[in-house]
Design goal:
Layout (H helix, E strand, L loop, with lengths): L1 H5 L1 H17 L2 E5 L22 H12 L4 E5 L8 H5 L5 E3 L4 H14 L3 E7 L2 E7 L10 H4 L12 H4 L3 H20 L8 E6 L4 E6 L13
Parallel strand pairs: 1-2, 3-4
Antiparallel strand pairs: 4-5, 5-6, 6-7
The structure holds zinc ion.
């Protein structure tokens, strides 16, 4: 709240500045082939409708809050054959995917296209989130700097079999929305270079620094 100490006029200028940037962010796209399931439905402002496409549920929730935002929905799986066409026209990518193929695909593509990537992941009672901007160079790691390769397929249970506490997904989804807005509006401190971890059972947050790996196959030295 540095600006508050300097007086209301500064606050007003700051507010009008980021409000103007917020007003310019009027286009977003949701990509998922999945339907909302009763087991893993996270809370949304309008309530999720079990059985509805997730992209339609997200579009309706956003429209109820701000009908001025143009929303595109893509009820399909993101893959190497369509990823660049789907995300190429946007300024930022928020990854909430439930599989490592998509996570590593977006890691590599966002680095190549120089797009910030706000990535959140879940286990049944825990979550983690970070922002990756490795195209900025030294001091800016990517997801592969942290986890170079995907784990073996049978090592990490998938969300639909592990069972995710829906409210934990809600916490991480809300954090991801905050970090996405901060990046778009250039507010506060970025999670670039920091992994924020949430342990729901212990009711703890903690963060760790992520070092850039000079040998990283994505963002390391060529
Ligand atoms: Zn890297």
């Amino acid at each position: 709240m540095k600006s508050a100490r300097r007086g209301n006029s500064v606050c007003s200028r700051r507010a009008s500045s980021w409000s103007a940037r917020a007003a310019s962010a009027r286009r977003c796209s949701f990509i998922s082939p999945r339907q909302v399931s009763g087991r893993s439905a996270s809370p949304t402002p309008t309530g999720s409708i079990v059985g509805a496409l997730k992209v339609d549920s997200a579009r309706d929730a956003l429209a109820s809050i701000n009908p001025g935002v143009r929303v595109e929905t893509h009820p399909l799986r993101l893959g190497p054959e369509n990823a660049e066409a789907l995300i190429g026209g946007y300024g930022l990518v928020a990854d909430g995917s439930d599989n490592f193929d998509t996570r590593y695909l977006l890691t590599d593509l966002c680095f190549r296209l120089k797009k910030p990537l706000v990535a959140a992941a879940l286990s049944p009672f825990e979550g983690q989130i970070s922002t990756f901007k490795p195209y900025l160079g030294a001091g800016h790691p990517c997801y592969r700097c942290l986890f170079r390769d995907p784990p073996p397929p049978d090592l990490v249970p998938r969300c639909e079999t592990a069972g995710i506490l829906g409210a934990v997904a809600g916490v991480l989804g809300t954090l991801q929305a905050v970090e996405t807005l901060k990046e778009l509006l250039q507010l506060g401190e970025s999670l670039d270079g920091t992994l924020l971890l949430y342990d729901a059972l212990r009711a703890r947050f903690h963060s760790i620094r992520i070092a850039k790996d000079p040998e990283c196959p994505t963002c390391g030295r060529p």
